[in-house]
């Protein structure tokens, strides 16, 4: 297997995501940090912290120069961070020592790298959100179309009561909407980092807060109003939101792995995977990917939350973010893409669903029968009576509704088939479909960092 299936040519169609992968490439990281360095020089020049002509020169050069990430590798291995090597490479490439001396004035490596990460996250989270919205839309259309398709609801893996397939789909879709909403709320809060070596901003000029605010405005990011070198709650929120997106896909995947089983077969998926030896099989590959991404994200999130950052800055906590956060974003984005595809491939087998509802013993109606009986006796006694009769139905092969009617001839039995047995299930499906249509508003522009 590959060290990273997200970037493996072999697994590209299963886990790969070229669009998001570009944002977490070395090239995109270097480009983002160069944009930060240039913007910082420009705002410092305008504020008189450095010569204005040097600020303008450095800003323009940051958008024109190209730095090879591989050329910085040795320095990263030694320093544990890429900014010192990047700054040295830029100063050399500028061939203007009178301006180069003002590059990276008063900032620290973490300021540049974290702010560059925010630029990339702004675009990446926008992509993931848009995919979640698309998945919600596909699920909403499915839920609305199947709002009154009757099927058995299951609890603890057991047939429980009548419901509708549309209501089940709505149960897949609501977490998708919630994940999209979380990402939508997070993106405007992505903020710059600018507080210098120890978080005090001492070398940034006479008014570090004003420089930070100006940098935020120049980059279109939020101003945090403080140092967050060792206060990583925003990173944790991004990780949690991405984990929630993958978990939403995993919920649908888990249910589809059950519904597509040979012994259940209530749902078919177009384009199932082939077996190397069993020609009859159509394996549920896409639902399996959804479940795997959900499990992977849970494990990655646990690694990120294993410990708080120490002191004013913490290299170990920071390095852990580098290992974990890109993978979480990639997993969330891939999960949303696969979920939208799956929603378009799902085909309920209505006859199989109807056959399960039409179980000759009628045990699926036990709850309704117990509540009907509770009109004639205390509720605990009614439940105990129906439980006893259900056991008799299994033992004798006699339908439960008949046993209840014979044991209690004066009892008015509730409807045991048709729309009346579905309760609010159709309404649940249609309510989700409406919400899925509404979540589609508010997509914002992105910035190209390629």
TrEMBL record:
Q: Name one GO molecular function term.
A: lyase activity
Keyword flag Cell division: no
Name the Gene3D superfamilies on file.
Fumarase/aspartase (C-terminal domain), Fumarase/aspartase (Central domain)
Looking at the Swiss-Prot or TrEMBL record, what is one Pfam family this protein matches?
Lyase_1
Which residues belong to any copy of the Adenylosuccinate lyase C-terminal domain? 361-433
Sorted UniProt keywords: Lyase
Taxonomically, the superkingdom here is Bacteria
| InterPro entries per UniProt | AdenyloSucc_lyase_C (IPR019468), Fumarate_lyase_fam (IPR000362), Fumarate_lyase_N (IPR022761), L-Aspartase-like (IPR008948)
Work out whether the entry's keyword set contains Lyase.
Answer: yes
* Family membership: Belongs to the class-II fumarase/aspartase family.
What name does this protein carry? Adenylosuccinate lyase family protein
User: In which organism is this protein found?
Assistant: Roseicyclus persicicus
Write the lineage as a comma-separated list: Bacteria, Pseudomonadati, Pseudomonadota, Alphaproteobacteria, Rhodobacterales
